[in-house]
Amino acid sequence: MVVSLIRIILLCPLAAFAIFGLLGLANRRFPRQDYLSTAAMLIALACSFLLLREVVPSPEAHTVDWLSLGGVTFSMGFYLDSVTVIMLIVVTLVSSLVHIFSMGYMHGDPRYPRFFAYLSLFSFSMLFLVVSDNLLGIYIGWELVGLCSYLLIGFWFEKDSAANACKKAFLTTRVGDVGMFIGMMMLFTKFQTLSLYGEGGIFALAASQLTTGDMVWLSIAGVLIFCGAIGKSAQMPLHTWLPDAMEGPTPVSALIHAATMVAAGVYLTARMFPILTETSSLVIAYVGGITALVAATIAIVRFDIKRVLAYSTISQLGYMMLAIGAGSYVAGLFHLTTHAFFKALLFLGSGSVIHAFHAMHHAHDDEHDHEHADDHEHSDEHILGAEIPPDQDMRNMGGLRHKMPITFITMLIATLSISGVPFIFSGFWSKDAILGGVLGRAMEWNSAHHYILFGMALCAAGITAFYMFRLIFMTFFGEPRNQEMHDMAHESPKSMTVPLLILAALSLPVVNILWFNDTYVKPPPQPHLHAPQHAYVSPDSNIGGKGYTVSLFGVSEAAAAEEEGGHGTDGTHTDDGHHGHGPAHAIAMVLSIFVAGLGIFLSWLFYHRRTLSAESVATTCRPLYNLFWHKYYFDEFYDGVLVALTVWKARLFAKFDGSVVDGIVNGVGFVTRDLLAAFTGAFDNRVVDGIVNRVAQVTWAVGGRIRRIQTGAIQTYLFVVLAGIVLLILIFRAL
Amino acid sequence: MLLSLMIFIPLLGMVVVLLLPRESEELVKRVTLIFTLIPLALAVYLFISYDRSTAGTQFFHGPVPWIDAFNIQYHVGIDGLSVTLLLLTALLGPICVIASWRNIEKGIKAYMALFLLLETGMLGFFAALDLFLFYVFFELTLLPMYFLIGVWGGPRREYAAIKFFLYTLFGSVLMLVAMIAVYLNSNIVNGVAEGARTFDIPTLITLAATQGHALADPDFQVWVFVGFFIGFAVKVPIFPFHTWLPDAHVEAPTAISVILAGILLKMGTYGLVRVNMAMFPQGLAHFTDGIGFWGNSLALLGFINIVYGSFCALAQTDFKKLVAYSSIGHMGFVILGLAARNSEGITGAILQMFNHGVISAMLFLLVGVLYDRAHHREINGFGGLGTRMPIYTGITTLAFMASLGLPGLSGFVGEALSLLGAYDRFKFLTILSTIGIVVGAAYFLWTLQRVFLGTLNPKYEALPEINGREILTLVPLGILTIVLGVWPNFAIDMFRESVTNLIDVLHAI
Amino acid sequence: MDFTLTNFIFYGFALMTVGSALLVVTVRNIVHAAFSLMVTLFGVAGLYVFLQADFLAATQVIVYVGGILVLILFGVMMTSGRLEMRIHIERGQLLLGGVVALALLTLLLTVIANTPAWKNLTDDGTELPPTTEKIGELILNGPFLLPFEVVSVLLLVALIGAALISRKEVRD
Amino acid sequence: MTLQHYLVISAILFTLGIFAVLTRPNAISILMGIELILNSCNLNFAAFSRFMTPPEDISGQIIAIFGIVLAAAEAAVFLAIILAIYREFGSIRPDEVDTLKG
User: Fold this and answer.
1) Sorting pLDDT into bands at 50, 70 and 90, what band is A382?
2) Binary contact (B455, A143; C-beta < 8 A)
3) Residue A286 and residue A288: Cα distance in Å, rounded?
């Protein structure tokens, strides 16, 4: 049942894509590709809901041998636990809604069917990633979603900026993927398998085989696997591709670059949870924390509505990473789901706004648009973010709440949710769970690192509230800044507003009920995570409560631990809860409400009341503003240094190949032909050929004499023959 | 017998083609196609009826005495490795004939005849079980190749053809010396000559593993290994013996590039597996035991090939040259995998051989399609073709993605297994080699962008879409790429036992 | 040696044969030489009769005299358009030819005289029945069938070949 | 009459034929010489058939008949060649036909 349901979920979107591909090969188009793809997604969604009931407490992986060598077998298979099911539902749900939304948004595009085919392929890849039970399968899905991301970002590939962006996205994530692959190689070499679960899986083997001496190795492996997540989830320092990926159609941004694919990094990190060590956890947490903070600060100064949301996504993903790194497994995944809904909503909402402007834009100066695309061959400006399409520039918007009420309301709900406005929005709960979890870990371990991380998270939360409301105020409130565009704006069609409404409903905590069920999602044990020795541990301060009491160590582990010092670092594998047990959660909740309020208030002052002038602040803090505006100079660094260096190196190698290696070959050829051969040639001409010629001359001369014998007269011949016969007979008689 | 039939049917085809009148070009092409389709059918039959559960060679023909004075025999047979490569060869045969259907302008009869001769050489090479026969077939491919490049090639065809010829000849001379050394030592046990000398490969493999036999002497093995290695390294090609490859590829006509990349490079790696690894495990061990410079040298060469080839490819502006350099990079994975000497590495290497044959064939065919239309290959001279030729773009994207190692397509499996295996022994070099993966993605994506994305170059507004005949050549390869990517056991089943057997030999020392 | 009539006739034929053959090789006029050859052939035919080979003698007369000789005369007439039929023989050639011919003759005669098996074989003079029927039997229904067929083919080929070679070039 | 009588006649004919072939400066004369040679051979066959074999065996005669046939064929071809040569060179003197002269 489980397996066949999963098969249906995977095969439906794949079939939708395959039909497109096969027809495309025959140069035909299936006009109703949109219905086909959407139907496939809806079936997958239904099956996902059916799977909800199939989750068992200790699931087994369903595998088949995919690739068997002499001694080693790589199996492919499905693993279905509560997290998988939730991810499945999130992916299929958001994907379905995006499909529906796209029917309106992409209407009239010359490559309309292709868009849906790509979406189907993406959905398949993503679902495959989610259900895989082994690293190889995850990696395969991982790369396939990367491909789809590439294809969809470059969907309007006539634009050079889109062509650049898709290449950048693929390459940047590939750098991370290589790290992940190296990590996989390390694990494989150690354990001779890439399966994660079950008796022979990596987790079981890691728990039973590794000793304390292996912790450095395991940390490196963990961080390397996390590299994949850094690339895919756009964490520092590989985050630069995600804002550029906004060149893709907005539904793509919503589906891939907000809700699902970028969250796959978080999902992977969560999957790897059991083998994270203290060091690797800390690395993950710091990467997440720094990303959350840095991306949030960049978002403050953006004017492109989609870029703001992109940086917001990066920031929120950093949040989730922080949560997992800090041990708040459930909180991280909880935030993943809530974020998926409200960020998808935000993107679709912005898409609705862009659509409203875009229609006008098209009607007005279509030709100009084309020239525009032509002119911008060199993309320096684009990298600086100075070039913003007019229909995405918030400075052209304002006062749209009357024109587009549904879009406005739904986006406001999402904004309230992401900002952490208390109690009635899901974002508050998930964010609070993270903050509480981090603070709880800090208090429990008495760890300075975690206090710093908590501080970062709190700052990021405040800034998030600020820039999100900046977006809302600039877009929907105030007076229209561009009257012409404003006049043309209109509410979007039903196919676009209905998904918005559904997503808005999903941003309420009620529908995320599963996360409030203690037993539904349980964090896996982390046998290699030792609390620092100075940790403050008391039996009843198991903050967050349902900590795994943890005799999951192997015997040798326990023995090793005892040898180390004999004191009871018995692994407080705590998890946060999200019910606000204990002091940590209470403190975190209060603080988060406070910073959110502060952010919203400041935003109101700056952008609605205009009591404070953003421009004057920017002037005062010019260096800081420049830093934010230039996105911490990451792109400049990459383009100016890394890419240039690589290309330079490539040219150098090619030159080396052409001049040195080939030069040597040609040189050998030259030496052989022109020097050696010249000498040999001379020798050959004078001596060897001389002898030959002399022989020939002698032969010639002799021949000249002898040929006289040939008279050509038959009778002479006959005479000689007969004379010869007579002579011969005479001779023989004589003998 | 079936095997011999398969090998010599193209030769028969050559005779038939030569007897046909010069004027009836269509007939010549059709006859050639038929004579390449028969080996394909036979190869498919062999592939299906091959007994996958054993490692031994099957479908023997011979040994039949050939040159008695030197105990040279006609002896052919296939194991799992050969049968896959035979299938690849037989598959590329008709594809190349179809690809040459329109764009060979002069002397189609001679072209087809030489092509058939080439096919016999290639098929025979992969099936030969006698070292001398092996060498004869190896050289037999050289001659038609020389003419095919030198007569039907591009503007610098003569330079390229001579370079190719001399390079290969240089390598094969060393190989010949090594071969004679093996022959002369093949009957010496404990310093005493016993019995007859032999060229028979299975016998030699057994002898080389016999204690006290002259062939089993480690020093001897090392030197002979080097001789054979250089011979095959030129063919693979391994840095620094690679510079014939870009020239030959750029000048050769499309179909010949396909054969060159698809089969001839595999002859090098096949030789490495069949002779260097199976026959001289101690020689191999000397270069792959991870101790000191020499112990890492083979893996180092693999690494250099990968990184160097990839970087050189990144710098190319000629489409075909880029693909040629990418071949160098991809063959590096084969070398790296072989150097690993474990089941993952060797399986990966063999898969990579097969997959690279399929994928690079696709790439060269695709370049040919574009060249036939635009008459140049300058990457920067195109732009925006994606709007004009969507099907072509789709197939190219598939081929590029397969080549850059996208999971789900065949290129990934070989690369990943090679790296997984190599990491076991050469951690540092393997990690460095992964740079090649990123650079590989970089040059393919950059090319994709420069050729297909962006605004359409107005020069090519009327460029016709890929036609049915060209699609016909690409579709089987595309299907193979996907099938092997999704279900690699399809191919691995063939040679799993052979690899296990080989590893037993390697570990027996 | 007794001079019976038979002997006399034999020697007559022998003399006729040898003498006319001598004329063939010596006369200067080629037409005369041809007629001398005819006499020689008749002489040989006569000798065949003495050897009891009646059919052979008849064939000799019919084929040689009736066929080949006529052919030769045709050849003479066709090639000697100017009717310049005198033959000039170089003295040196004559001398050399004569020496060789004489040496050959000496040799042959020595062999004939010295071969023991050939000595004292006299013709017993037995009359044989006419050979025609027997020859027909042997050729058409005996061991000589195959040679006969081969010779027929050869003759045919020779005829066609001769016709082909000697015809005028039409193309020019 | 003994065998040797015939053989001597045959030898003389043969020698004369050779002499003609060697010395006559005219192709037709040469042909006549050849006819003499052939006749001497036939005569030998007939003689040997008569003297060396049982009377009823007349194989020698049959060979002689074949010889006559061959002579006829040969004469035909020879004359044809002579005609061709005559057309080509305007002469049938063998010493003037010396294209093969070295």
Assistant:
1) very low
2) no
3) 5
Pick the CATH number of C1-90 from 1.20.120.1200, 3.40.50.300, 3.30.70.100, 3.40.30.10: 1.20.120.1200
CB of D9 within 8 Å of a chain C CB? The answer is: yes
Please list every residue in chain A whose beta carbon sits closer than 8 Å to the beta carbon of residue B355: none
DSSP, collapsed to helix, strand or coil, labels residue B323 as helix
- For residue B138, the tally of other CB atoms under 10 A from its CB is 25
- Span C59-72, pLDDT tens digits: 888 888 888 888 88
Which residues in chain A have Cβ-Cβ distances shorter than 8 Å to B441?
170-171, 174
Range of the structural domain that residue B453 is part of: 296-494
**CB-CB under 8 Å, A710 with D99:** no
Per-residue pLDDT tens over the stretch A26-54: 777 777 778 888 888 888 888 888 887 77
Chains D and B: 3 or more CB pairs within 8 Å of each other = no
Q: Is residue B420 a part of any domain in this protein?
A: yes
Residue D40 scores a pLDDT above 90: yes
Collapsed DSSP state (helix, strand, coil) of residue B186 = coil
Cα angle B335, B336, B341 (rounded to 5 degrees) comes to 95
Interface of A with D in 396-435 (CB under 8 A): none
* Whether residue A390 has a cis bond before it, omega within 30° of 0: no
State which H helix or E strand residue B59 sits in. Answer: strand B58-67
Query: Which pTM does this prediction carry?
Result: 0.73
Which of B133, B143, B138 has its CA nearest to residue B165? B143
Backbone torsions φ then ψ of B378, nearest 5 degrees: -75, 115
Token pair listed for A586: 């209470």
d(CA A431, CA A331): 8
- Hey, what are A659's tokens? 């001049």
Q: Where are the domains of chain D?
A: 3-96
Residue D11: pLDDT above 90?
Answer: yes
Tell me which residue in A646, A654, A661 faces B240 most closely, judged by beta carbons: A661
- Please give the DSSP secondary-structure letter assigned to residue D93: -
- Assign A526 a pLDDT band (cuts: 50, 70, 90): confident
Domains in chain B, number: 1
In A130-169, the residues whose Cβ lies within 8 Å of chain B are 136, 139-144, 147, 150-151, 154, 157-160, 162-164, 166-167
| CA D62 centroid distance within chain | 17
CA B154 distance to own-chain centroid: 22
What are the helix (H) ranges across A28-134? 33-51, 82-105, 112-131
CB C33 within 8 A of CB C41: no
- The answer to whether B478 and A55 have CB atoms below 8 angstroms apart is no
Structural fold of domain D3-96: Helix Hairpins (1.10.287)
What the block records as the tokens of A71 is: 């001694």
Alpha helices for B434-467 (secondary structure H) = 435-452
Asked if residue B50 belongs to a domain, the reply is no
Q: What chain D residue is nearest to C73 in terms of C-alpha separation?
A: D28
CA angle B238, B243, B244 (to 5 degrees): 105
* φ, ψ of residue A75 in degrees (nearest 5): -110, 155
Query: Which chains border D (3 or more CB–CB pairs < 8 Å)?
Result: A, C
- Separation between Cα atoms, residue C117 and residue D49, nearest integer Å: 14
Under 8 Å between Cβ of A497 and A409? no
* CA–CA gap between residue A489 and residue A491 (Å, rounded): 7
Task: Assess D11–C contact: CB distance below 8 Å, yes or no.
Answer: yes
Contacts of D21 in chain A (CB under 8 A): 715, 718
Closest CA to A154 of A238, A79, A218, A244: A244
Contacts with B394 from chain A: Cβ below 8 Å? 21, 24-25
* Cβ pair A722:D98 closer than 8 A: no
Collect all residues of chain B within an 8 Å Cβ-Cβ radius of residue A24.
390-391, 394
